[in-house]
Amino acid sequence: MLGAIFPDSDVIRDFFSSDKLLIVTWHRSITHSLIMLPLWALVLAGITRAFANSRKWEAPSFMALTGIYAAGILSHILLDLVTSFGTMIWSPLQWSRPAWDLIFIVELHADRDFPCAAIARLGVRPPRKGEGPRRWNVAGIPASAISNRQNW
């Protein structure tokens, strides 16, 4: 799962920048690159092995982890290619955005809204009669706002 999520780690830059267009210019760039995929898979496998060894946990071999991470990263890149936004699969060699344009993206951050609200909901007590929707919104709105920080 970490391999499939890793390419979107490039949005972390948004928290350290005041550039409102950063998400448009840098999202789906070097972390979504087929050229860099082997490096990312090796780095993630190394981090996982080091973490598992420090805790004395059993873990798959370094090569198996590399393959697992590569498969996750590749699936993410391929699924992003079907969108109209495009993905910089050749970065850092070329900064074009190939796109298969099979799916239109309405809201770049909408895919984070439901998981954030669901995670926030985990810490909320079961609703009493008549307060279910209110409690859901109280937990979900701040999580959604945090996930969409760059839209402010």
Molecular structure report:
By secondary structure, the chain is an all-alpha fold. It has helices at residues 2-5, 22-26, 37-54, 62-81, 110-122, 132-147. The chain is built from 6 helices and no strands. Helix 3 crosses helix 4 (62-81) and helix 5 crosses helix 6. The chain is globular, with a radius of gyration of 18 Å.
- How many distinct helices? 6
What percentage of amino acids are in beta strands? under 5%
Q: Helix/strand/pairing class, anyone?
A: mainly alpha
Q: Span from first to last CA? A: 29 Å
Largest sheet: none
The outline comes out as: globular
Indicate the percent of residues in helices. Answer: 40-55%
- Poorly predicted parts: 133-141, 146-152
Topology as H/E string? Answer: HHHHHH
Compute the CA-based radius of gyration. 18 Å
**How many β strands by DSSP?**
0
Mean pLDDT: 77
